[in-house]
Amino acid sequence: MNWDQARKLLRLARTRSESADAARASVDHARHELGAAPRAHSLCIASGKGGTGKSVVSASLGTLFARRGRTLLVDADLGVGNAHILHDLCPPHSFVDVIEGRLSVRDIRVNARPQLDLLAGGSGVSRMAGLSPYELHLVAVGIESVEQEYRHVLVDSAAGISNQTIAFAAASDVVLIVTTPDVTALTDAYAFLKVLLQRRGELVPLFVVNRATCEEEALHVADRLRGVARKFLGREPRYLGWLPDDRHVVECVNARSPVVARAADAPFSQAVTELSVRMQQEFARVPARGVGRSMLRSVGYTPGLG
């Protein structure tokens, strides 16, 4: 081999090396861009017990959020989901298909109304109420894979304080507890608050009083909940307002429609519209962490370790 041949080989090797470096840089840049891509702000609508109107509030807030940007409604009551009913839907697939390995989360989405998609929970599937860490990991991976496509992710939580209910709440940017003037609802709201703060102590949960007959009653209920929390937890949730006991709500539920869509001028619709504005203000105060991504860090499953 003469010197000219050797020089050509060196030049070729250098060119290939530079191309490989450029390719690696391109991949690293793409990975950085993917990781840095904005994620949806997430709101978990929760309650200590069933029957507080949590899903009714979720349906109307989801409808209102969708008017501001693309929104994903996650029915996190995975065993007894009913969020689809309030949008007059009969989804062909649900999280059951994800857990049983038939479909991905992306595949089970259904469109509820313009700019509002729904991920349905199972209906009457008892095992979905107590998923293993691996199964919760599957749910989290699926949500994480689509949440960058949305401006908002709204989690319609299951009632109670199960591990997976608290996992959804703790992973959300904002948590809104829905309670009513009933003493049982207040007691269970406090229990939910206690368990949630044990999981995520820096969070400042919000709450609303639903089905109040007047503002005075709502303020009395709010003072009771804040007082008990302050006394026994050394913390208190922030009161965000009240929603009236409105006959239009029952009519709209029976018609399988969000109240704000069917009865826009009803007292409940006016109050929940004000609430949606306050929620947007809350989103402006906190970073969007990604509810799916946050769940992946906390469900207690490490791929490869079973």
Explain the layout of strands and helices.
Blueprint: H1 3-36, E1 41-46, H2 54-66, E2 71-75, H3 95-99, H4 105-108, E3 110-113, E4 116-119, H5 133-146, E5 152-156, H6 163-171, E6 174-179, H7 183-199, E7 206-212, H8 215-233, E8 238-244, H9 247-254, H10 259-262, H11 267-285, H12 291-296
Helix pairs in contact: 2-11, 6-7, 7-8
Sum up the overall morphology in one term. Answer: globular
Percentage of residues in strands: 5-15%
Radius of gyration: 23 Å
Count up the helices: 12
What is the C-level CATH assignment of the largest domain?
Alpha Beta
What is the tally of beta strands?
8
Structural class assignment: alpha/beta
Biggest β-sheet strands, sense, barrel: 8 strands, mixed
Poorly predicted runs:
12-35
Question: What do these coordinates show?
Answer:
The protein is an alpha/beta fold and 306 residues long. It folds into 2 domains: 1-37; 38-296, 3-Layer(aba) Sandwich (Rossmann fold), CATH 3.40.50.300. The chain has 12 helices and 8 strands. The chain has helices at 3-36, 54-66, 95-99, 105-108, 133-146, 163-171, 183-199, 215-233, 247-254, 259-262, 267-285, 291-296; strands at 41-46, 71-75, 110-113, 116-119, 152-156, 174-179, 206-212, 238-244. The chain has an 8-stranded mixed sheet, sandwiched between helices. Helix 2 crosses helix 11. The protein is globular. It starts with a helix and ends in a 10-residue tail after the last helix.
